[in-house]
Write a structure and sequence with these properties.
The protein is mainly alpha-helical. The chain folds into 4 domains: 3-122, no CATH class; 173-278, Tetratricopeptide repeat domain (Serine Threonine Protein Phosphatase 5, Tetratricopeptide repeat, Alpha Horseshoe), CATH 1.25.40; 282-352, no CATH class; 354-390. The chain is 72% helix and 2% strand. It contains 19 helices and 3 strands. The protein is elongated.
Length: 390
């Protein structure tokens, strides 16, 4: 915000403050008192316009008569400094305001909330947490304070407290918050599984699916845990759930599904699963899985014919690379040179392509992130669709 804009922002507050003192309780206030108050405001504004922020702060904080306009002006000034990155000045204003006698509990709570945001901006997470937690205990600014605490607990990876905070908000049962809670339970499950506490991890995953029955991450992780325990029937059930929860994640489930069917000696079951899936899902991953089955159960020629026909309706660089690779294995010497060149080009093209992309901010990556590293949104990174992806 420019200094001129700041001037026009605070000028009406100065005028309104004078009017307020003249009218409050129907009593006339002396002209000297009103003029002195207005003069203090304009003196502070003048310091701001001349980039003498510390002198301006001294003036505004030294105003003895405190009322709602004075508090609002000081809050606005503190917020301005925080937005400009001058966090130390913002902290000083809000701390002084909290300590001033004569302000209401509501005004003190607002100043405490702003001070918490100052500390959060400064990276002082523990001090920010103290202010936001205090507001929750007081029942003041509950939702706003809870949202700030969620930011802190996510940075600290304190998922249990993040869940507890979510449950204290008025939006605890909203779809977006339930999906967020499921992700936090998945984080707890991931940690428990890493520490070889599989049963505890499965308990967290059950809670995740209770919060969000469409949580793909919970199903994939549950499938992995069961697969590691050699409980392939339950693993298969968990992986199959992904196909009903979100078709975008079909590529993540196909390989685990194939492993489970093979472990259960049910190759035909995998083939039967693929047929309707190919109809429902427009990507190439189930087609490639079906191609590999045809190659193993029938012949390379049948697999090549099937894949080439499928690529006419669902073009894909990944599918083309597979087709070229298959042709390389069966081609004669005269065609092998060109096919080798094409194979190299397609592989190079795939190497430079993002496999996953955040649907919210567009961040691309090679690995699946359940929380976008760029915009910090949860469950927004999905396999890339289209010719360059699925």
């Amino acid at each position: 915000m420019s200094q001129l804009a700041l001037f026009w922002l605070l000028l009406p507050l100065a005028a309104a403050s004078g009017w307020y003192w003249a009218r409050r309780d129907g009593k006339k206030v002396s002209t000297i008192r009103v003029n002195r108050l207005s003069a203090d405001y304009f003196r502070g504004l003048n310091y701001l316009l001349n980039e003498e922020q510390d002198k301006a702060i001294e003036v505004f904080l030294s105003i003895e008569d405190i009322d709602s306009d004075t508090v609002e002006t000081q809050l606005a000034l503190g917020n301005l400094f925080r937005r400009r990155g001058e966090v130390e000045r913002a902290i000083r204003i809000h701390q002084t305001l909290i300590q001033r006698p004569g302000i209401s509990d509501t005004q003190r709570a607002q100043a405490s909330f702003e001070l918490g945001q100052d500390f959060l901006k400064a990276g002082l997470l523990d001090r920010a947490e103290d202010h936001f937690s205090g507001l929750l205990k007081q029942g003041m600014h509950v939702d706003a304070a809870a949202r700030q605490l969620l930011k802190i607990f996510q940075q600290e990876r304190d998922w249990a407290r993040a869940i507890e905070t979510l449950e204290r908000t008025s939006s605890a049962n909203s779809s977006s918050f339930l999906k967020l809670k499921a992700q936090f339970y998945c984080e707890l499950a991931q940690t428990a599984n890493t520490n070889k506490m599989e049963d505890e991890a499965l308990g967290f995953l059950a809670s995740a699916l209770t919060a969000d029955p469409q949580c793909v991450r919970a199903s994939l992780l549950a499938g992995k845990i069961y697969e590691d325990k050699l409980d392939f029937a339950r693993a298969l059930s968990a992986y199959r759930a992904v196909l009903e929860q979100d078709l975008d994640y079909v590529p993540e489930a196909l390989q685990p599904l194939r492993r489970c069917f093979e472990a259960l000696n049910d190759a035909e079951g995998f083939a039967q699963l693929l047929e309707p899936l190919i109809e429902r899902y427009s990507g190439v991953s189930p087609v490639l899985a079906r191609t590999r089955l045809l190659e193993a159960q029938s012949s390379v020629a049948d697999a090549q014919l099937y894949l080439s026909e499928q690529l006419r309706t669902r073009p894909s660089v990944k599918g083309l690379a597979t087709l070229i690779s298959m042709n390389l294995r069966t081609s004669d010497e005269s065609a092998r040179g060109n096919l080798t060149m094409l194979n190299g080009l397609t592989l190079e093209l795939m190497k430079n392509q993002a496999v996953y992309r955040c649907v919210r901010c567009g961040f691309g990556s090679k690995a699946l992130n359940w929380q976008c590293p760029s915009c910090k949104s949860w469950n927004t990174c999905k396999p890339v669709q289209g010719v360059a992806g699925e």
